[in-house]
């Protein structure tokens, strides 16, 4: 089986083609990683810290090349691609300090002399399955904490991001990371299944259906697993909000990178008198979005899924306020689109479509807006736009989302803070920040008592 990756802006441009290695190659790679893990842990905090720091330097040294590759392989606008490269270097540098963090605590004994302590230790081999939309940042925020605490890692990237993942592996080699400590294996479903069946700890980001299968397989083996499965994210706009500012933030969260972020806004909820001015401002803001912000969706199937959903909603009584068309040009482009009057049970109102399309709703008051925002099977991020601190705090207390952003776009992640959603959006421990260090380690309790010779 051949793994191919094409340029979404120029579908005739083949970025990379490699042969899928197969399940046996995955098992062999995990075996080599397991053999290398003891030495990687024994090398000590200083060696691991220095290695991760060198990877950050390698990413920075090749920043423009990497940004161009991201643009070509996954269609990300150049400014966002450069931002992702900068974030990738920052992630490796942040986790380069983690090996020096305390790995446990010392406790008093209940009675008599002795020493009681807890220690967090790595599991062994981390199996990482990453999506295509952040082809350097997400593999890095999975691999860096796993490596920092002494695991080795095997990464299976999405086929659409194969070239970026292979280049990341080359940079880790340039940074003198020991052999078999970090391995990239391109592949499809067969390789992903084999990795979940062989690894000692699993981290997955991708679709809900595949993620649930990964969770079942890993938990069936008794292996710790985290899964990030996206979200149906809302933006709440209250009557006292700065409507123009809110519309700018929301338009960016709808159309930025063609809505291909798990934190993108796909539902806009206008409260009371905010509806009419927000509708007008949002239509205007989305109409001015160009390719430097939006770009193409990742492939033809994604575009067909989006346009089919919009057509279906219109047939069911929805109205297109802006966008809704496919530009007559090469590449998998979709106009940024806003719809109103979408039936509550239509898929656009209930499912994540991963494109630059959003639905506008009206709510009578904050209570109804919060109820609408919470009425989803998976909520990752919600934005709230208001000048009222009381309203912002009330919304933060009552919204189900894993991340709540006030007067900011829903699409934004602080890599040093926990990342994850609620309900069906996430499974297991959070990613990023110190939470990731805990996920990739297990706590052990050690009791040291006198041997009788004292």
What attributes does this structure have?
alpha/beta, 15 helices, Aldehyde Dehydrogenase, Chain A, domain 2, six-stranded mixed sheet, 454 residues, 2 domains, globular, seven-stranded mixed sheet, 20 strands
Describe what this molecule looks like in 3D.
There is one protein chain. This protein has two domains: 2-229 and 425-448, Aldehyde Dehydrogenase, Chain A, domain 1; 233-406, Aldehyde Dehydrogenase, Chain A, domain 2 (3-Layer(aba) Sandwich). The protein is built from 15 helices and 20 strands. The chain has helices spanning 23-42, 45-61, 63-74, 78-95, 137-148, 162-174, 189-198, 208-220, 243-255, 275-287, 300-315, 347-350, 366-374, 389-398, 433-439; strands spanning 2-7, 10-19, 104-107, 115-122, 125-130, 152-157, 182-184, 201-205, 225-228, 233-237, 265-271, 319-322, 337-340, 357-363, 378-379, 381-385, 403-406, 422-423, 426-427, 441-448. It has a seven-stranded mixed beta sheet with strand order 12-13-14-11-10-16-17, sandwiched between helices. Strands 7-6-5-8-9-19 form a six-stranded mixed beta sheet, with helices on both faces. A three-stranded antiparallel beta sheet has the order 3-4-20. Helix 3 (63-74) packs across helix 4 (78-95), helix 3 (63-74) packs antiparallel against helix 6 (162-174) and helix 4 (78-95) runs parallel beside helix 5 (137-148). The longest helix has 20 residues, at 23-42. The chain starts with a strand and ends in a 6-residue tail after the last strand.
């Amino acid at each position: 089986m051949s793994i191919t990756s094409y340029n979404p802006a120029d579908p005739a441009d083949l970025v990379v083609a490699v042969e899928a290695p197969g399940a046996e190659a995955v098992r062999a790679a995990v075996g080599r990683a397991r053999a290398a893990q003891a030495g990687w842990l024994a090398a000590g905090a200083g060696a691991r810290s220095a290695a991760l720091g060198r990877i950050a330097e390698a990413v920075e040294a090749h920043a423009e090349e990497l940004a161009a590759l991201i643009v070509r392989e996954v269609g990300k606008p150049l400014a966002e691609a450069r931002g992702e490269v900068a974030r990738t270097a920052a992630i490796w540098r942040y986790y380069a300090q983690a090996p020096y963090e305390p790995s446990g605590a010392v406790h008093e004994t209940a009675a008599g002399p002795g020493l009681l302590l807890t220690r967090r230790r790595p599991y062994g081999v981390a199996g990482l399955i990453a999506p295509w939309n952040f082809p350097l940042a997400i593999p890095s925020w999975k691999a860096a904490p796993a490596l920092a605490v002494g695991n080795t890692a095997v990464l299976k990237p999405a086929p659409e991001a194969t070239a970026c993942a292979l280049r990341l592996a080359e940079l880790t080699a340039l940074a003198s990371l020991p052999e078999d400590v970090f391995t990239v294996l391109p592949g499809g479903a067969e390789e992903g299944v084999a990795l979940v069946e062989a690894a000692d700890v699993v981290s997955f980001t991708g679709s809900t259906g595949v993620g649930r299968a990964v969770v079942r397989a890993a938990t069936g083996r008794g292996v710790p697993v985290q899964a990030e499965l996206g979200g149906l994210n809302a933006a709440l706009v209250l009557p006292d909000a700065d409507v123009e500012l809110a519309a700018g933030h929301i338009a960016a969260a709808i159309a930025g990178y063609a809505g291909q972020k798990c934190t993108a806004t796909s539902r806009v909820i206008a409260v009371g008198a905010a509806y009419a001015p927000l509708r007008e401002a949002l239509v205007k803001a989305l109409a001015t979005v160009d390719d430097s912000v939006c770009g193409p969706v990742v492939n033809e199937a994604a575009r067909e899924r989006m346009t089919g959903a919009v057509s279906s909603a219109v047939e069911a009584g929805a109205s297109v306020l802006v966008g809704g068309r496919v530009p007559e040009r090469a590449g998998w482009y979709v106009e940024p689109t806003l719809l109103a009057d979408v039936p509550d049970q239509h898929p656009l109102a209930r499912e994540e479509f991963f494109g630059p399309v959003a639905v506008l709703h009206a709510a009578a008051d904050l209570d109804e807006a919060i109820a609408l925002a919470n009425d989803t099977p998976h909520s990752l991020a919600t934005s709230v736009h208001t000048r009222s601190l009381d309203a912002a705090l009330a919304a933060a207390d009552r919204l189900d989302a894993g991340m709540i952003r006030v007067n900011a776009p829903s699409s934004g992640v602080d890599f040093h803070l926990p990342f994850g959603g609620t309900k069906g959006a996430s499974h297991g421990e959070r990613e990023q920040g110190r939470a990731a260090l805990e996920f990739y380690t297990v706590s052990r309790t050690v009791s040291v008592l006198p041997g009788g010779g004292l």
